[in-house]
Amino acid sequence: MLAYIIRRLIGAVILLFVVSLVTFAIFFLVPRIAGASVDDLASRYVGKTADATTTHAMAEKLGFTDPLWEQYGRFVKAIFAGADYSTGPTTVHCPAPCFGYSFITQNPVWPDLVDRMGVTISLAIGASILWLFFGVATGVVSALRRGTVFDRAAMGVALAGVSLPIFFTGLLSLTIFSYGLGWTAPGGSYVNFGDNPIRWAGALILPWITLAFLNAAGYARLTRATMLETMNEDFIRTARAKGLSEGNVVVKHGLRAVLTPILTIFGLDLGILLGGAVLTESTYSLPGIGKYAVDAIVNNDLPKVLGVTLVGAFFIIVANLIVDLLYAVVDPRVRYS
Q1: Cα–Cα–Cα angle for 211, 215, 217, rounded to 5 degrees
Q2: Phi-psi region of 82 (alpha: psi -120 to 50; beta: other; left: phi over 0)
Q3: Which domains does the chain have, with CATH numbers?
Q4: Hey, which of 29, 160, 212, 238 would disulfide with 25, CB 3.0 to 4.6 Å?
């Protein structure tokens, strides 16, 4: 087991390196292949309103005229050792980890991401607990009561949850529960947990439910399908033949086997959300990483987009690593050589 953990850690580090290389190529190599000039690349750092002279000067200061391998070396070095950026008459230092410096807002990217990470983590953790509990519970009950009214109603609601986009259900929920009935806080009402825990939960309860409704629907359908298949396996019949209660059969044998695919997609979903719930944060005006990325795209602020991409990739890789290590805990049939 220890050898497997070491191999997975080494693999995660290698994968992070590959992701950084691919990300750099997407933002700096692919545009050149498509015909973009160094001035076109520099325009993404200075914004849409800069003139041609300013843009060309920035391209030279950023080293876009240097070979790509030198640019990638500076890019990686900045993450671990920081970097200095010239903003005209002065030079600013971007401390490590430096994921870039925004010349539009005159701020390093990493501190901005740290400030917004608490919002995204709060949204992701709260919503994931809701959709994991209600999605799996609904799927199990539907599988055990196959063909009943509850099963048909639950799968109908799950189908609606999968089909409806988050910006539709989010705006509809805001219209009804926030601006219509006044039961929940309106969009843009987020406060930090340390400032006021009650207002923090009140501002996130509707985004939690909306996001959980979308994901719980998929978990319910997957759990139901996997549970129906598992309950017909030979080891389930053997457990029943031994005289075990139906509750023990369902929980200790059936559900434990079902949790393996659930754990797989849960790790992916949670990792993606920690990298930024773009639609949910934009719909509810939550100042998280997702909305930060949208604002950066609108303002043509490339360093911010690049930073969000790398942070999102990091969360996904770490989530997959944790999922792999938890397989042996969830399913005893899993053995690592």
Answers
A1: 120
A2: left
A3: 2-109 (no CATH), 111-330 (1.10.3720.10)
A4: 29
Question: Where do the H-state alpha helices sit in the chain?
Answer: 2-24, 30-33, 38-46, 52-61, 68-81, 109-144, 149-163, 166-173, 197-230, 234-241, 246-248, 256-274, 278-283, 289-298, 302-330
Q: How many C-beta neighbours within 10 Å does residue 111 have?
A: 12
Beta bridge partners of 83: 94
**Residue pair 249/236 in contact by the 8 Å Cβ criterion:** yes
Say which residue the tokens 């988050």 belong to.
Answer: 166
Six-digit token string for 329? 């805990």
Q: Long-range contacts: 243-252, Cβ < 8 Å, 24+?
A: 250/140, 250/144
Question: Token digits for 85?
Answer: 């950026």
From first to last of its 337 residues, the chain has per-residue pLDDT tens of 667 677 778 888 888 888 888 888 888 888 888 777 777 777 766 656 667 777 777 777 777 777 888 888 888 888 888 888 765 667 778 888 888 888 778 888 888 888 888 888 888 888 888 888 888 888 888 888 887 888 888 888 888 777 777 878 888 888 888 888 878 878 777 888 777 888 888 888 888 888 888 888 888 888 888 888 777 777 777 777 877 777 777 777 777 777 778 888 888 888 778 776 788 888 888 888 888 888 888 887 888 888 888 888 888 888 888 887 777 666 655 555 5
What's the whole-model pTM score?
0.79
